[in-house]
Amino acid sequence: MTVEPQATPILTVDNLKTYFSLREGWLKAVDGVSFTIDQGEIVGMVGESGCGKSVCAHSILRLLKTPPANLSGRIEFKGADLLSVSNSEIRKIRGGHISMIFQDPMISLNPVLTIGRQISETMILHQDLSRAEARSRSVELLEMVGIPGAEKRARQYIFQLSGGMRQRVMIAMALSCQPEILIADEPTTALDVTIQAQILELIKEMNRKLGTAVLLITHDLGVVAGYTQRVMVVYAGKIVETASTKTIFSRPWHPYTIGLMGAIPRMGKAQDGYLANIEGSPPSLIGLEKACAFHSRCQYAMEECLNQVPEFVETEPGHFVRCFNPRFDRRQDL
Amino acid sequence: MNETLGIIRRYLEQGILAKAGLGIVFLIILFAIFGPMFVRFGPTEQDLSIVLNAPDSRHLLGTDELGRDILARVAYGARNSLFIGIISVGMAMVMGVTIGLLAGYWRGVLDRLIASLMDAMLAFPPLVLAIAISAALGPGYLSIMIAIGIVFTPFFGRLVRGVVLSVREMEYVLGARAIGTRDVKIILRHILPNIAAPIIIQVSLGLAYAILVEAGLSFLGVGLTPPAPSWGSMLRDGYGYMQMAPSMAISPGVAIFVTVLGFNFVGDGIRDALDPTQQRVFKETEQ
Amino acid sequence: MIPVIFFVTIMVFTLMHLIPGDPAYVMLGEEASPEAVEALRKELGLDRSLPIQYFAWMRKAVKGDLGRSIKNNVKILDTILARLPITAYLAVSAVVFSILIGLPAGIIAGVRPKTAIDVVATVLAMAGIAMPSFWLGILLIFFFAFKLEWLPILGYVSPAEDLWDSLRHMVLPAITLGASMAATNTRFIRSSMLDVMNKEYITTARSKGLKEIGIIRGHALKNALIPVVTMLGLQIAMLFGGALVVETIFAIPGLGRLIVDAIFARDFPMVQGIVLFMAVFVLTANFIVDILYSFLDPRIRLGR
Predict the structure, then answer these.
(1) What value of ipTM does the predicted structure carry?
(2) Cβ B286–A49 below 8 Å, yes or no?
(3) How many residue pairs bridge chain A and chain B with CB atoms within 8 Å of each other?
């Protein structure tokens, strides 16, 4: 049974700013990010490493140590602002309504506890199951994510499993209480290429089966292309472009997005032997100036770009760009 | 050179304990070198008319059961303790690094032999082994230094061997061997820099412990022969006169305590300064 | 293990025979006639070559016969075994004390680093390490036994005789011996906890909604305490060394006192026997600790 993504937002992030106080100044990891996640949809958040997407994810569940982190803005979920609810409230949300899976399951799972125990733990906490009930549910969950011999595996430890299976365990653990949203922070980066596809398929299948919305964070445009319905492109702590996946791949308008697309090797196109790359490197997130963060690397930079931070502009319905000079007409030969 | 300065700077950033430790060690060294010159009395100068005096303006720490000035004995004792400590730890370092390198780099039978030998040495309670060795060598400075040196050798040896074992598998070392670099050059160029840091830490902590061991030996009566002033033997004597002249026992005790504390702080400070794992401020994906 | 034990025995033997002083003279006294000394030496087998003496000793030692004491001709092994429980009693008390103090202090300091309680715990721990045990013992006796007269100064009372009095006598010695262990434990547990609390799986546990206490108890402790177990094993050797000093100060008739007395009395076979015993004991204890360790850590137990 497929669940049609309805346009009902269940999570609304409004002007989230996550700054870290360092000796050298404020590190603005997330600098005014706003987006929504609709029920049952898979949204991609893409950007290079260090752009703030992972911090954004951790901010939603308040997993950062607050000093040195400093969060402001509003994150609306089920009528409450996640940034201002009490500790016991956010604990109920974590795992129960919003779950998270992480990049490297080898270090993100406890090496000395059995798999079954780690999965059961969430259910015992949120759903008040008994130990025995939770255990049998864990086995079912392991089967659901495609791990053969689930009964035996539940008693094993994570080092006894392969990388792909470990990630499946994380997924099972995260979905055990049927949360409304699953945040997947680079879930495939640490895996072999062949396994990556399997895990992404699994996530897609779970989204279909359970109706869980997914925030899929990655640096890999290929992942985004195949598995998301909507995409947000992040650069230097801000979202610079967002649109449906199809749109963004056929009509990228932000110079950075265009650059990213150009850097993908494509089959069947005449290549002159070089992959286009974006000159320069991302700016330091400490003490950003009042300018477009991308201007120093942008071939289309204008006067304004050096003096002001561009705002979001809706250039066509559902397609937003943060740029003074979006490339409506010109784009890299895709 | 820059690297050294950077380490020194990081050390000073460590916090108050590291700085205090450095201060203490500095003062103790000054005290040991120059103290005896400024003290009014000799350490073995007896004056039976003023035995067991409480501290006063002439004898700042009082006198012991033979009328000797306690301050003088503490000062000369500092010289003895530091001297013995430095020499013995130095010996242990040289011997330990050597056998650690031999074992770790060339492996094979030699490694098994050396590793077993080190394990055997570590099976003995350090104090017991030190007593046995110094008893075997007879009384005197040299035998204590050799005894402590031998006892501490496996600490360095094991440390170095461990580091060498892991470094020799690193790719830059394998690469160097593949192009035929001579072993000696590999050791000097690639291995030694890696063991420098742990060794320095171990030296500092070793000094602290050596002072404790020497004091322990003296306390039990198998250390420096009287009347040579040693903090440990002063404690032993002081034990019997606690009620009458507490300064006899307290003074050397404080001296040992402060010195060992200082070296421990320094050792910790160095360890933290050299530790590359900075606290991750936030989780960022690394690729 | 075997080569280690081999080296141990060689070391013990060599050391004993390097110590100046002829056992025969010790037994007969300095004025003995050379013929009597010679005869005794022949009888004790001291005129044979060293390697032969070594093997002879080893052959008997393996069977449990460590020879007889020069001083009072009692079987060495018997003396050792008689004194062992006393030292063990002291050692266990010290370990208990060190865990009682070290474990909570280390955990709290590790979970709340850089706070006031962490600084206090760290400074106290460093003080504990720097404090020579003999000085601490003297200080404790001075204050608690002398001035305050709460506890007895010296001596040993067997628990079989009078449990309460026995414990009263054991308090100060246990604290003296255990203090530096407590300090080391505190620092070690602290750094282990600090390490563990920064691991990714703790963040994962938080993302599941667990309470901080639950995370410490269910996730962190098990990981943090595994290396601590090996530490405890290593401390067994230190315990023997410390016991020497503590038993001397507090007049406790254990193995430590035995060896010190034996050294002064030039009772070489006794010293030899005790040292050998201690070393073998330590090796065995470490061996057991290794096995324990593999039980605790599933990664080692199930082999990867």
Answers:
(1) 0.86
(2) yes
(3) 31
Average pLDDT taken over every residue of chain A = 86
Question: CA-based diameter of chain A, in Å?
Answer: 66
* pLDDT for position A265: 63
pLDDT digits (tens, 9 = 90+) for C194-211: 889 989 999 999 999 999
For B245-266, letters b (16+ CB in 10 Å) and e give: bbbbbbbbbebbbebbbbbbbb
Q: For residue A234, what is the enclosing H or E element?
A: strand A230-235
**Among B residues 191-230, those touching chain C with beta carbons less than 8 Å apart:** 208, 212, 215-216, 219-222
How many Å lie between the alpha carbon of A273 and the closest alpha carbon of chain C?
41
> Cβ contact (<8 Å) for B283 and C239?
no
C159 CA to chain A: closest CA distance, Å? 40
C71/chain A closest Cα distance in angstroms: 55
Rg (CA), chain C: 24
**Contacts of B100 by beta carbon, 8 Å cutoff, 6+ apart:** B114, B156, B157, B158, B159, B160, B161, B164, B195
The closest CB to that of B283, out of A58, A68, A189, belongs to A58
CB C134 within 8 A of CB C245: yes
pLDDT of residue B165 exceeding 80, the answer is: yes
HEC readout, C48-107: CCHHHHHHHHHHHHHCCCCCECCCCCCEHHHHHHHHHHHHHHHHHHHHHHHHHHHHHHHH
* Binding-face residues of C in 102-131 toward B, CB within 8 A: 122-123, 126-127, 129-131
* Nearest residue to C144 (alpha-carbon basis) of C182, C175, C99, C121: C175
Round to the nearest angstrom and report the end-to-end CA distance of chain A.
36
pLDDT tens column, A54-103: 999 999 999 998 878 889 999 999 989 999 999 999 999 999 999 999 99
Q: Which residues of chain A neighbour B286 with C-beta distances below 8 Å?
A: 49
| Token digits of residue C7 | 């080296």
Q: Are B241 and B251 a contacting pair, CB within 8 Å?
A: no
Sheet bearing A80-81, strands edge to edge: A25-38, A9-22, A69-77, A80-81
Residues of C in contact with A112 (CB under 8 A): 222-223, 226, 297-299
Question: For residues B122 and B92, is the Cβ–Cβ distance under 8 A?
Answer: no
Given a cut of 80, whether residue A299 has pLDDT beyond it is no
pLDDT mean over A190-204 = 91
At C36 the pLDDT is 76
